[in-house]
Amino acid sequence: MNSLDGIRILDLSRVLAGPWCTQTLADLGADVIKIERPGTGDDTRTWGPPFLKDAQGAETQEAAYYLGTNRNKRSLTCDIAKPEGQALVRELAAHCDVFVENFKVGDMARYGLDYASLKASNPRLVYCSVTGFGQTGPYAERAGYDYAIQGMGGLMSVTGERDDLGGGPQKVGVAVSDLMTGMYATVAILAALRHAEKTGVGQQVDMALLDTQVAMLANLGANYLVSGSVPGRAGNAHQNIVPYQVFEVAPAADGTKDHIIVAVGNDSQYVKFCKAANIPELGTNPLFAKNRDRVRNRAQLVPILETVMKTRTKADWLAALEAAKVPCGAINNLAEVFADPQVEQRGMVTRWQHPVKNDLRLVSSPIKLSATPVRTPGHGGLPPPLLGQHTEEVLRSVLNYSDAQLSDLKRKEVI
Protein backbone atom coordinates (compact mmCIF):
# COMPACT_ATOMS: atom_id res chain seq x y z
CA MET A 1 0.00 0.00 0.00
CA ASN A 2 1.22 3.50 -0.87
CA SER A 3 0.16 6.86 0.53
CA LEU A 4 -1.47 8.07 -2.71
CA ASP A 5 -3.02 4.81 -3.91
CA GLY A 6 -6.15 5.63 -5.90
CA ILE A 7 -5.00 9.10 -6.95
CA ARG A 8 -4.63 9.55 -10.70
CA ILE A 9 -2.63 12.46 -12.16
CA LEU A 10 -2.63 13.71 -15.73
CA ASP A 11 0.80 15.23 -16.28
CA LEU A 12 1.27 17.62 -19.20
CA SER A 13 4.46 19.08 -17.76
CA ARG A 14 7.96 18.68 -19.13
CA VAL A 15 11.60 19.54 -18.39
CA LEU A 16 12.09 19.81 -14.59
CA ALA A 17 9.81 21.76 -12.22
CA GLY A 18 6.59 19.97 -13.19
CA PRO A 19 8.13 16.52 -13.68
CA TRP A 20 9.95 16.83 -10.33
CA CYS A 21 6.58 17.43 -8.68
CA THR A 22 4.83 14.56 -10.45
CA GLN A 23 7.74 12.18 -9.85
CA THR A 24 7.43 12.82 -6.12
CA LEU A 25 3.69 12.18 -6.27
CA ALA A 26 4.31 9.05 -8.34
CA ASP A 27 6.85 7.81 -5.79
CA LEU A 28 4.14 8.19 -3.15
CA GLY A 29 1.82 5.92 -5.12
CA ALA A 30 -0.14 8.15 -7.48
CA ASP A 31 -0.84 6.84 -10.98
CA VAL A 32 0.87 9.50 -13.08
CA ILE A 33 -0.01 9.49 -16.78
CA LYS A 34 2.62 11.55 -18.60
CA ILE A 35 1.34 13.12 -21.81
CA GLU A 36 4.12 13.55 -24.38
CA ARG A 37 4.38 14.81 -27.94
CA PRO A 38 4.38 11.96 -30.48
CA GLY A 39 7.81 11.42 -31.97
CA THR A 40 9.78 13.71 -29.65
CA GLY A 41 8.33 13.62 -26.15
CA ASP A 42 9.64 15.56 -23.20
CA ASP A 43 12.41 17.98 -24.20
CA THR A 44 14.79 16.39 -21.69
CA ARG A 45 14.78 13.08 -23.56
CA THR A 46 17.38 14.74 -25.83
CA TRP A 47 19.30 16.64 -23.14
CA GLY A 48 22.53 14.71 -23.30
CA PRO A 49 25.00 13.20 -23.33
CA PRO A 50 25.11 11.18 -21.23
CA PHE A 51 22.56 8.82 -22.73
CA LEU A 52 21.63 5.40 -21.38
CA LYS A 53 23.50 2.50 -22.99
CA ASP A 54 21.72 -0.77 -23.66
CA ALA A 55 22.87 -4.25 -22.69
CA GLN A 56 25.18 -4.35 -25.73
CA GLY A 57 26.76 -1.00 -24.81
CA ALA A 58 25.08 0.93 -27.64
CA GLU A 59 23.88 4.45 -26.89
CA THR A 60 20.06 4.81 -26.77
CA GLN A 61 17.77 7.85 -27.03
CA GLU A 62 17.19 7.91 -23.25
CA ALA A 63 19.04 10.89 -21.72
CA ALA A 64 20.16 10.62 -18.10
CA TYR A 65 18.42 13.95 -17.42
CA TYR A 66 15.05 12.48 -18.42
CA LEU A 67 15.66 9.24 -16.55
CA GLY A 68 16.35 11.14 -13.31
CA THR A 69 12.98 12.92 -13.26
CA ASN A 70 10.39 10.51 -14.62
CA ARG A 71 10.34 7.22 -12.71
CA ASN A 72 7.05 5.65 -11.62
CA LYS A 73 5.11 7.25 -14.50
CA ARG A 74 3.28 5.91 -17.54
CA SER A 75 3.92 7.59 -20.90
CA LEU A 76 1.09 8.29 -23.33
CA THR A 77 1.74 10.12 -26.58
CA CYS A 78 -0.92 12.60 -27.68
CA ASP A 79 -0.79 15.55 -30.07
CA ILE A 80 -2.71 18.25 -28.21
CA ALA A 81 -2.39 20.58 -31.20
CA LYS A 82 -5.05 18.45 -32.93
CA PRO A 83 -8.72 18.76 -31.90
CA GLU A 84 -8.89 15.00 -31.43
CA GLY A 85 -5.89 15.17 -29.09
CA GLN A 86 -7.50 17.93 -27.07
CA ALA A 87 -10.69 15.89 -26.81
CA LEU A 88 -8.69 12.87 -25.65
CA VAL A 89 -6.99 14.87 -22.88
CA ARG A 90 -10.36 16.29 -21.76
CA GLU A 91 -11.75 12.78 -21.58
CA LEU A 92 -8.79 11.58 -19.54
CA ALA A 93 -8.99 14.61 -17.23
CA ALA A 94 -12.55 13.64 -16.33
CA HIS A 95 -11.12 10.43 -14.84
CA CYS A 96 -8.27 12.10 -12.94
CA ASP A 97 -7.85 13.78 -9.56
CA VAL A 98 -5.00 16.11 -10.54
CA PHE A 99 -3.95 17.90 -13.73
CA VAL A 100 -0.42 19.36 -13.96
CA GLU A 101 0.82 21.59 -16.79
CA ASN A 102 3.67 24.02 -17.37
CA PHE A 103 2.69 25.67 -20.65
CA LYS A 104 2.87 29.43 -21.11
CA VAL A 105 -0.05 31.45 -19.75
CA GLY A 106 -2.98 31.22 -22.17
CA ASP A 107 -1.85 28.12 -24.07
CA MET A 108 -4.15 25.74 -22.23
CA ALA A 109 -7.16 28.00 -22.77
CA ARG A 110 -6.51 28.00 -26.53
CA TYR A 111 -6.62 24.20 -26.42
CA GLY A 112 -9.73 24.12 -24.26
CA LEU A 113 -7.66 22.51 -21.50
CA ASP A 114 -7.67 25.35 -18.95
CA TYR A 115 -9.05 24.94 -15.45
CA ALA A 116 -12.38 26.61 -16.22
CA SER A 117 -12.98 24.20 -19.11
CA LEU A 118 -11.97 21.03 -17.27
CA LYS A 119 -13.69 21.68 -13.94
CA ALA A 120 -17.05 21.81 -15.70
CA SER A 121 -16.92 18.03 -16.16
CA ASN A 122 -14.77 17.28 -13.11
CA PRO A 123 -15.46 19.71 -10.23
CA ARG A 124 -13.12 17.77 -7.91
CA LEU A 125 -10.12 18.34 -10.18
CA VAL A 126 -6.99 19.87 -8.67
CA TYR A 127 -5.38 21.82 -11.50
CA CYS A 128 -1.75 22.87 -11.04
CA SER A 129 -0.10 25.35 -13.39
CA VAL A 130 3.67 25.81 -13.17
CA THR A 131 5.09 28.86 -14.96
CA GLY A 132 8.02 31.23 -14.68
CA PHE A 133 6.06 34.16 -13.32
CA GLY A 134 2.54 32.95 -12.45
CA GLN A 135 -0.87 33.54 -13.97
CA THR A 136 -0.97 37.25 -13.05
CA GLY A 137 1.35 40.25 -13.03
CA PRO A 138 3.25 42.21 -15.68
CA TYR A 139 5.58 39.29 -16.48
CA ALA A 140 2.88 36.60 -16.68
CA GLU A 141 3.24 36.02 -20.43
CA ARG A 142 7.02 35.72 -20.35
CA ALA A 143 8.74 32.35 -20.59
CA GLY A 144 10.66 31.60 -17.41
CA TYR A 145 13.75 29.43 -17.04
CA ASP A 146 15.59 28.45 -13.89
CA TYR A 147 18.84 30.20 -14.84
CA ALA A 148 17.10 33.54 -15.46
CA ILE A 149 14.98 33.12 -12.32
CA GLN A 150 18.07 32.53 -10.15
CA GLY A 151 19.28 35.91 -11.40
CA MET A 152 16.00 37.81 -11.21
CA GLY A 153 15.09 36.34 -7.82
CA GLY A 154 18.29 37.45 -6.13
CA LEU A 155 19.99 34.08 -5.65
CA MET A 156 22.93 34.87 -7.91
CA SER A 157 23.56 38.11 -6.03
CA VAL A 158 24.33 36.14 -2.85
CA THR A 159 26.00 33.08 -4.43
CA GLY A 160 29.71 32.94 -5.23
CA GLU A 161 32.96 34.37 -3.93
CA ARG A 162 33.01 37.82 -2.34
CA ASP A 163 33.21 40.69 -4.81
CA ASP A 164 36.34 42.05 -3.15
CA LEU A 165 38.01 38.71 -3.89
CA GLY A 166 37.12 38.77 -7.56
CA GLY A 167 33.67 37.25 -7.27
CA GLY A 168 30.73 37.84 -9.58
CA PRO A 169 27.27 36.45 -10.28
CA GLN A 170 27.18 32.69 -9.84
CA LYS A 171 24.33 30.25 -10.34
CA VAL A 172 23.84 27.16 -8.18
CA GLY A 173 25.11 23.92 -9.71
CA VAL A 174 21.65 22.36 -10.00
CA ALA A 175 18.41 24.06 -11.07
CA VAL A 176 17.22 24.89 -7.56
CA SER A 177 14.42 27.26 -8.64
CA ASP A 178 12.90 24.46 -10.70
CA LEU A 179 13.43 21.85 -8.01
CA MET A 180 12.02 23.94 -5.19
CA THR A 181 9.03 24.96 -7.31
CA GLY A 182 8.40 21.27 -7.92
CA MET A 183 8.53 20.56 -4.20
CA TYR A 184 6.26 23.51 -3.30
CA ALA A 185 3.86 22.35 -6.04
CA THR A 186 3.81 18.88 -4.49
CA VAL A 187 2.85 20.31 -1.10
CA ALA A 188 0.20 22.56 -2.65
CA ILE A 189 -1.35 19.68 -4.60
CA LEU A 190 -1.53 17.50 -1.50
CA ALA A 191 -3.23 20.35 0.39
CA ALA A 192 -5.71 20.86 -2.45
CA LEU A 193 -6.44 17.12 -2.58
CA ARG A 194 -7.21 17.19 1.15
CA HIS A 195 -9.64 20.05 0.57
CA ALA A 196 -11.27 18.18 -2.33
CA GLU A 197 -11.70 15.09 -0.15
CA LYS A 198 -13.53 17.15 2.48
CA THR A 199 -15.62 19.33 0.17
CA GLY A 200 -15.84 17.60 -3.18
CA VAL A 201 -14.47 20.76 -4.79
CA GLY A 202 -11.13 21.12 -6.52
CA GLN A 203 -9.14 24.28 -7.14
CA GLN A 204 -6.39 25.81 -9.25
CA VAL A 205 -2.82 25.86 -7.95
CA ASP A 206 -0.78 28.73 -9.41
CA MET A 207 2.96 28.04 -8.97
CA ALA A 208 5.62 30.46 -10.22
CA LEU A 209 9.37 29.95 -10.29
CA LEU A 210 10.00 33.60 -9.38
CA ASP A 211 7.64 33.39 -6.37
CA THR A 212 9.46 30.29 -5.19
CA GLN A 213 12.90 31.82 -5.67
CA VAL A 214 11.90 34.88 -3.63
CA ALA A 215 10.44 32.65 -0.90
CA MET A 216 13.55 30.48 -0.69
CA LEU A 217 15.79 33.48 0.00
CA ALA A 218 14.86 32.50 3.57
CA ASN A 219 17.04 34.23 6.19
CA LEU A 220 18.67 36.50 3.59
CA GLY A 221 15.29 37.81 2.48
CA ALA A 222 14.34 38.37 6.10
CA ASN A 223 17.70 40.06 6.75
CA TYR A 224 17.00 42.59 4.02
CA LEU A 225 13.39 43.27 5.01
CA VAL A 226 14.33 43.76 8.66
CA SER A 227 17.52 45.77 8.17
CA GLY A 228 17.13 47.41 4.77
CA SER A 229 20.71 46.39 4.03
CA VAL A 230 21.30 44.53 0.75
CA PRO A 231 23.39 41.39 1.37
CA GLY A 232 26.22 40.55 -1.00
CA ARG A 233 28.12 37.42 -1.87
CA ALA A 234 29.88 35.79 1.07
CA GLY A 235 31.63 32.94 -0.70
CA ASN A 236 31.55 29.82 1.47
CA ALA A 237 30.87 31.79 4.64
CA HIS A 238 27.52 32.30 6.35
CA GLN A 239 25.90 35.72 6.52
CA ASN A 240 24.66 35.29 10.11
CA ILE A 241 26.93 32.73 11.79
CA VAL A 242 30.70 32.59 12.44
CA PRO A 243 32.63 30.30 12.03
CA TYR A 244 30.38 28.63 9.48
CA GLN A 245 32.38 28.18 6.29
CA VAL A 246 34.95 26.26 4.27
CA PHE A 247 38.51 26.27 5.60
CA GLU A 248 41.68 25.21 3.81
CA VAL A 249 43.57 22.59 5.83
CA ALA A 250 47.04 21.05 5.55
CA PRO A 251 47.70 19.63 2.06
CA ALA A 252 46.76 16.07 1.21
CA ALA A 253 49.45 13.39 1.00
CA ASP A 254 49.99 14.12 -2.70
CA GLY A 255 50.46 17.82 -1.98
CA THR A 256 47.13 19.02 -3.35
CA LYS A 257 45.04 21.55 -1.46
CA ASP A 258 42.41 20.15 0.89
CA HIS A 259 39.41 21.69 2.59
CA ILE A 260 36.71 20.95 5.14
CA ILE A 261 33.48 22.58 6.26
CA VAL A 262 33.17 23.84 9.82
CA ALA A 263 29.59 24.68 10.79
CA VAL A 264 29.54 26.06 14.34
CA GLY A 265 25.87 26.69 15.07
CA ASN A 266 25.90 28.07 18.61
CA ASP A 267 28.15 29.46 21.32
CA SER A 268 28.67 26.16 23.14
CA GLN A 269 29.81 24.52 19.90
CA TYR A 270 32.21 27.42 19.41
CA VAL A 271 33.82 26.74 22.80
CA LYS A 272 34.15 23.05 21.87
CA PHE A 273 35.66 24.00 18.52
CA CYS A 274 38.28 26.23 20.18
CA LYS A 275 39.26 23.47 22.61
CA ALA A 276 39.56 20.92 19.79
CA ALA A 277 41.67 23.40 17.84
CA ASN A 278 43.94 24.01 20.86
CA ILE A 279 42.97 27.70 21.03
CA PRO A 280 40.71 27.66 24.14
CA GLU A 281 41.48 31.32 24.86
CA LEU A 282 39.50 32.35 21.78
CA GLY A 283 36.48 30.55 23.19
CA THR A 284 36.27 32.96 26.12
CA ASN A 285 37.60 36.10 24.45
CA PRO A 286 34.83 38.73 24.84
CA LEU A 287 35.34 39.78 21.21
CA PHE A 288 34.28 36.34 20.03
CA ALA A 289 32.39 34.57 22.84
CA LYS A 290 28.91 35.33 21.47
CA ASN A 291 27.85 34.73 17.87
CA ARG A 292 26.74 38.33 17.44
CA ASP A 293 30.26 39.39 18.41
CA ARG A 294 31.86 36.86 16.10
CA VAL A 295 29.76 38.14 13.19
CA ARG A 296 30.67 41.76 13.98
CA ASN A 297 34.36 40.86 14.45
CA ARG A 298 34.53 38.36 11.60
CA ALA A 299 37.46 40.20 9.98
CA GLN A 300 39.57 39.68 13.11
CA LEU A 301 38.58 36.13 13.95
CA VAL A 302 38.53 34.35 10.60
CA PRO A 303 42.18 35.05 9.62
CA ILE A 304 43.29 33.57 12.96
CA LEU A 305 41.20 30.47 12.35
CA GLU A 306 42.42 30.15 8.76
CA THR A 307 46.01 29.97 10.03
CA VAL A 308 45.13 27.39 12.69
CA MET A 309 43.17 25.20 10.28
CA LYS A 310 46.18 24.86 7.95
CA THR A 311 48.19 23.15 10.69
CA ARG A 312 46.40 19.79 10.48
CA THR A 313 45.13 17.49 7.74
CA LYS A 314 41.53 16.91 6.75
CA ALA A 315 41.44 13.49 8.40
CA ASP A 316 42.90 14.89 11.65
CA TRP A 317 40.40 17.76 11.74
CA LEU A 318 37.38 15.62 10.96
CA ALA A 319 38.30 13.10 13.66
CA ALA A 320 38.94 15.79 16.26
CA LEU A 321 35.86 17.86 15.51
CA GLU A 322 33.51 14.89 15.27
CA ALA A 323 34.81 13.63 18.62
CA ALA A 324 34.14 17.08 20.09
CA LYS A 325 30.59 17.09 18.61
CA VAL A 326 31.38 20.10 16.41
CA PRO A 327 29.46 20.01 13.10
CA CYS A 328 31.88 19.53 10.22
CA GLY A 329 32.19 17.71 6.96
CA ALA A 330 34.24 16.78 3.93
CA ILE A 331 33.57 18.23 0.48
CA ASN A 332 32.85 15.19 -1.67
CA ASN A 333 32.68 14.83 -5.42
CA LEU A 334 29.83 12.68 -6.76
CA ALA A 335 31.93 9.51 -6.90
CA GLU A 336 32.68 9.99 -3.20
CA VAL A 337 29.03 10.77 -2.45
CA PHE A 338 27.73 7.53 -3.92
CA ALA A 339 30.54 5.52 -2.29
CA ASP A 340 29.80 6.98 1.13
CA PRO A 341 28.71 4.21 3.55
CA GLN A 342 25.93 6.39 4.98
CA VAL A 343 24.52 7.07 1.52
CA GLU A 344 24.78 3.38 0.68
CA GLN A 345 23.14 2.26 3.93
CA ARG A 346 20.25 4.69 3.42
CA GLY A 347 19.52 3.13 0.03
CA MET A 348 19.98 6.31 -1.98
CA VAL A 349 20.60 4.35 -5.17
CA THR A 350 18.03 1.94 -6.59
CA ARG A 351 18.39 -0.48 -9.49
CA TRP A 352 15.58 -0.62 -12.06
CA GLN A 353 14.68 -3.09 -14.79
CA HIS A 354 14.45 -0.64 -17.68
CA PRO A 355 13.18 -1.83 -21.09
CA VAL A 356 16.60 -1.22 -22.68
CA LYS A 357 18.82 -1.96 -19.66
CA ASN A 358 18.06 -4.42 -16.92
CA ASP A 359 20.24 -2.78 -14.27
CA LEU A 360 19.62 0.96 -14.42
CA ARG A 361 20.94 2.80 -11.37
CA LEU A 362 19.01 5.91 -10.34
CA VAL A 363 19.02 8.20 -7.32
CA SER A 364 16.30 7.15 -4.89
CA SER A 365 13.55 9.17 -3.32
CA PRO A 366 14.71 10.49 0.07
CA ILE A 367 11.25 9.96 1.57
CA LYS A 368 11.19 7.20 4.19
CA LEU A 369 7.70 6.22 5.40
CA SER A 370 7.23 3.37 7.87
CA ALA A 371 3.68 2.34 6.92
CA THR A 372 3.34 3.45 3.29
CA PRO A 373 6.79 3.34 1.70
CA VAL A 374 7.49 4.90 -1.67
CA ARG A 375 7.32 2.82 -4.84
CA THR A 376 10.62 1.09 -5.62
CA PRO A 377 11.71 -1.76 -7.89
CA GLY A 378 9.87 -4.89 -6.81
CA HIS A 379 7.36 -2.87 -4.81
CA GLY A 380 5.11 -1.36 -7.44
CA GLY A 381 7.79 0.88 -8.92
CA LEU A 382 8.03 1.64 -12.63
CA PRO A 383 11.26 2.61 -14.42
CA PRO A 384 11.21 5.84 -16.45
CA PRO A 385 9.02 5.00 -19.45
CA LEU A 386 9.95 4.86 -23.09
CA LEU A 387 8.15 7.41 -25.23
CA GLY A 388 4.53 6.30 -25.57
CA GLN A 389 5.22 2.99 -23.84
CA HIS A 390 1.84 2.94 -22.10
CA THR A 391 -0.41 4.67 -24.65
CA GLU A 392 -2.60 1.71 -25.47
CA GLU A 393 -2.53 0.39 -21.90
CA VAL A 394 -3.84 3.67 -20.47
CA LEU A 395 -6.51 4.23 -23.11
CA ARG A 396 -7.79 0.69 -22.71
CA SER A 397 -7.77 0.63 -18.89
CA VAL A 398 -8.92 4.18 -18.16
CA LEU A 399 -11.23 4.93 -21.11
CA ASN A 400 -12.10 1.40 -22.30
CA TYR A 401 -11.03 2.23 -25.85
CA SER A 402 -11.46 -0.46 -28.46
CA ASP A 403 -8.98 -1.62 -31.07
CA ALA A 404 -10.93 0.35 -33.67
CA GLN A 405 -10.73 3.56 -31.67
CA LEU A 406 -7.01 3.14 -31.12
CA SER A 407 -6.43 2.43 -34.80
CA ASP A 408 -8.39 5.54 -35.77
CA LEU A 409 -6.30 7.75 -33.44
CA LYS A 410 -3.09 6.25 -34.83
CA ARG A 411 -4.25 6.79 -38.40
CA LYS A 412 -4.91 10.47 -37.63
CA GLU A 413 -1.49 10.69 -35.90
CA VAL A 414 -3.11 11.84 -32.67
CA ILE A 415 -1.27 9.16 -30.66
What features would you highlight for this structure?
alpha/beta, Rossmann fold, formyl-coa transferase, domain 3, 2 domains, 6-stranded parallel sheet, 18 helices
Q: Explain this structure to me?
A:
- This protein has helices spanning 17-27, 64-67, 83-93, 107-110, 115-119, 146-152, 176-199, 209-215, 218-227, 267-276, 280-284, 291-296, 298-309, 314-323, 334-339, 341-345, 391-399, 403-411; strands at 8-12, 31-36, 51-53, 59-63, 73-77, 98-101, 126-131, 203-208, 244-249, 258-263, 328-329, 349-354, 357-363.
- By secondary structure, the chain is α/β, with parallel strands linked by helices.
- The protein has 2 domains: 8-215 and 343-411, Crotonobetainyl-coa:carnitine coa-transferase, domain 1 (Rossmann fold, 3-Layer(aba) Sandwich), CATH 3.40.50; 244-332, formyl-coa transferase, domain 3 (2-Layer Sandwich), CATH 3.30.1540.10.
- It has a 6-stranded parallel beta sheet with strand order 5-2-1-6-7-8, sandwiched between helices. A 3-stranded antiparallel beta sheet has the order 9-10-11, covered by helices on one side. A two-stranded antiparallel ribbon has the order 3-4.
- Strand 3 and strand 4 form a beta hairpin.
- Helix 1 (17-27) crosses helix 7 (176-199) and helix 7 (176-199) packs across helix 8 (209-215).
- The longest helix is centred in the middle third of the chain and has 24 residues, at 176-199.
- The model has no long low-confidence stretch (mean pLDDT 95).
Number of helices: 18
Strand content: 15-25%
Averaged pLDDT, please?
A: 95
Query: How helix-rich are the residues, as a percent range?
Result: 25-40%
| Major sheet characteristics | 6 strands, parallel
CATH fold topology of the largest domain: Rossmann fold
Strand order of the largest sheet: 5-2-1-6-7-8
* Overall outline: elongated
Oligomer: single chain
What CATH architecture label of the largest domain applies?
Answer: 3-Layer(aba) Sandwich
Number of strands: 13
In whole angstroms, the N-to-C terminal distance is 32 Å
Uncertain stretches of 5 or more adjacent residues: none
Q: What do we call the CATH homologous superfamily of the largest domain?
A: Crotonobetainyl-coa:carnitine coa-transferase, domain 1
Give the C-alpha Rg: 25 Å
Q: Which secondary-structure class do the elements indicate?
A: alpha/beta
Number of domains: 2
User: What is the level 1 CATH name of the largest domain?
Assistant: Alpha Beta
